[in-house]
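User: hey, got a sec? need Carbohydrate ABC transporter membrane protein 2 (CUT1 family) folded
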Amino acid sequence: MSVRQTIEQVKAGKLDPADVLKTVVATGGALSLLLVLMFPVYWIFTTSLSQGAGLMSSEGVFADPSTYNLDAYRWVIYESSFTDALVNSLIVVTVTVTVSMAMVIPGAYALSRRQFAGRSKILYGYVLFTQVGAGLSIATLIALYALFSNLGLSNSLVTLGLFYAASAIPFNTWLLKTFMDNIPVSYEEAALIDGASRWDVIREVILPLSKPGIAVVLIFTFLAGWNEFIVAQRLLRPENYTLSVELYALATSGQYETPWTEFAAFAIMFALPVAIIYFAAQNYVESGLSFGGMEG
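Assistant: Yep! Here you go:
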């Protein structure tokens, strides 16, 4: 509805001015909140284009747009360790996503559709690992570091990916299970009556209807391998650094100051794949979170 139409309806008594005022205030508040949340992103982006090495220019917070350049991005691509760290991150993410999805999808289907001995205990165990696991993170990290060091696996990208997968499986299995719980059983029964086998039902009914939930799980497992820093920083050596660890190393590389322009460009390129994946699967993500009971 346009502003003119709103004014005309208020004059005609079809709209309550108080309701219009509430809508304006709510919209203004939402836009203000959006600007506050996006300000750090805008600041980092403009910093990556500026000259020098500081977060702020001598003229204020933002540099003169006429001085913007791509030197920092050229440095990241051609002179830094970004490419090697990118390959390392892709190896870790590939292992994390592949193992997680191979376990999460059949596990979620079994917990949602099958009754078997120990099912309730497994569900309680998943809740325990999901809700209590974060509180045990420090103890887990110490034990993990000691175990991997003793086994000679403290510098393995594959081992790191397996650890991320193990950490991601409980929560994402539970999330996908709650999504599958919302798929009517009558769809499966109708397919079985029509002569479909159990595998046909899973392939032709369950998986297509679970695409939004699977998309959410895929993104969450991707983020588990892409963004994690603490475990990777403790277990990996410089030649196997992932992007998150390499970004931290860049921030602490200067003896007296941080090269903020290069850091900003590195951070933008590090975050870009996550943004692209999310926006490409946005409709699936919103639908999956809604039906999975995580909306709001």
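Quick note: Residues 292-296 have pLDDT under 50 and may be disordered. Let me know if you need anything else on Carbohydrate ABC transporter membrane protein 2 (CUT1 family).
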